[in-house]
Amino acid sequence: MDNDVSAGSAGSTSTLGHLALGLTLLAFGVGNTGMIDNVTAADAAALATWVGGVALFVVGLLEFRAGNGRSGTAFAGLGAFWFTWGTAVGGETSAEAAGLFMLLWALLALTLTAAASGSGVLGQGVYGLLTLALLLGATAAFAGNDGLAKAGGWVGAVAGLVAWYGATAALAKWPTFTGRAAGRRGVTATG
Fold it and tell me: CB of 6 within 8 A of CB of 188?
């Protein structure tokens, strides 16, 4: 994430990355909650493949090119995760393999959470919630527990809303809670 603002500056590739991540997490999370009839997490596969996968990966490469290794790692890594998940939906996979997949990617999300220290509530919040959602999903897959899967969906949906808010705040210059600038009154997403 950008050093001054967890959501990125208005018009930055980081902002686009957070929008893509937010929408993908929101669709995946809502699908897992079962709150909308006949909508499942599998219905988010196309969005996960193209927006969460390809778009995030490209944004990650652009962030690397701009010299931002933290955002580049986050977006390229999460792009690989979403592309893999989106293309694997509907395939023959055991519950244990699905649980292991989510557990391994939770390690990436945990790394991103630790790397986002100092970037504020939005930065650490998105990755921390993603870590928790993946851990709940992995546990649900291992245990065959639909309740845990729904809980993971709700956490993922909240993570998506946080990422969406951060990106929207950067574009609309709404208030955010960032690491270094949080002590000043009237701090907006553009600092």
Answer: no
HSE-up (13 A, CA, CB side) for residue 24: 28
Give all domains of the chain, ordered by start, each with its CATH number: 13-179 (1.25.40.600)
Q: Specify the pTM.
A: 0.83
Mean pLDDT of 89-113: 91
Q: Where are the alpha helices (DSSP H) in the chain?
A: 13-33, 45-47, 56-65, 69-88, 95-115, 121-143, 146-172
Q: Which residues pair with 188 in a beta bridge?
A: 175
Buried b (16+ CB within 10 A) or exposed e, 137-176: bbbbbbeeeeebbbbbbbbbbbbbbbbbbbbbbbbeeeeb
Degrees, nearest 5: CA angle 140-83-62: 130
pLDDT digits (tens, 9 = 90+) for 37-86: 888 888 888 888 998 999 999 999 999 999 999 999 999 999 999 999 88
Indicate the Cα dihedral angle 169, 190, 10, 128, nearest 10°. -50
